[in-house]
Amino acid sequence: MKYTATIIRILFLTLFLFLLVNGKVMLWLALFGVSLIAAIIFGRIYCGYICPMNTLMLPAEWLSKKLKLQTQSSPKWLKNGYFTWITLIVSAIAMLASKKLLHVNLPIMPFWILAAVLITLRYKPEVFHNLICPFSCLQRTLGRFSLLSHRVNEADCIGCKICEKVCPSKAIAVFNKKASVTESLCHQCTNCRQACPKNAIHYTKKRIEASSSTIDA
Ligand code: SF4
Ligand code: SF4
Questions:
Q1: Relative to the alpha carbon of 192, which ligand is closest?
Q2: pTM of the model
Q3: CATH numeric code, 148-215
Q4: What are the CA-CA distances from residue 13 to residues 25, 56, 58, 100, 140 (Å)?
Q5: Nearest ligand for residue 149 CA
Q6: Residue 195 CA: which ligand 1 atom is closest?
């Protein structure tokens, strides 16, 4: 699954670069729109597999750890979570204004890709994913209704917290020795499922016991 996910991410990154070079980045934004609808069924798969920012954040995080640049803290002023809405609104206004007044398409996606990489060289990926990314507030809003998502079968969980350590978006946390996934934050990346020593995490439907309704994604 790990290699399949990497190949899927590289293919979408290649598609994004192709559209960018050919001045068709609006098609990418249309794909993002479709992914919002898909999030209601499949969860935030755009964030986990399609987003070029996420794909480039993975090597940035690796480099950050290697060079010991990563800090565990995050800026306090970001913590209320509203900043993602501000970045979305400012980005949308900047794009519309530059098109209307200057007749140019503002390179908003390359700007955010650069920002995502630079921020991830210093902070854990969850800081950009959950507190800064202009696209995450929309994905989070619809992702919370996802029919399918990674979920924990509490009966199998021993509360070891291994899943917490591998989650890029702080979507899984252990309380009272039982892990639980916040679906609105989950990118469906499978990291936790692959790391769990008790096979307690499954990609499964809401309100159905994980042990009786699982999908191998
Ligand atoms: S890794 Fe598995 S067993 Fe450990 S806390 Fe997470 S869900 Fe529970
Ligand atoms: S590690 Fe698990 S909880 Fe975290 S984003 Fe990936 S699938 Fe979701």
A1: 2
A2: 0.90
A3: 3.30.70.20
A4: 12, 9, 13, 29, 22
A5: 2
A6: 1
Residue ranges of the chain that CATH labels 3.30.70.20: 148-215
CB–CB of 45/5 below 8 Å?
no
Among protein residues, the one with the nearest Cα to ligand 1's atom 3 is 157
Residue-wise pLDDT tens digits, 166-206? 999 999 999 999 999 999 999 999 999 999 999 999 999 97
Kindly give the distance from the C-alpha atom of residue 18 to the centroid of ligand 2, in angstroms, as a whole number.
Answer: 29
Q: Answer yes or no: are the C-beta atoms of 181 and 210 closer than 8 Å.
A: no
**Residues having CB within 6 Å of any atom of ligand 2:** 150, 166-169, 171-172, 181, 186-192
User: Over pLDDT 90: what percentage of the chain?
Assistant: 80
Per residue in 190-200, pLDDT (tens digit) is 999 999 999 99
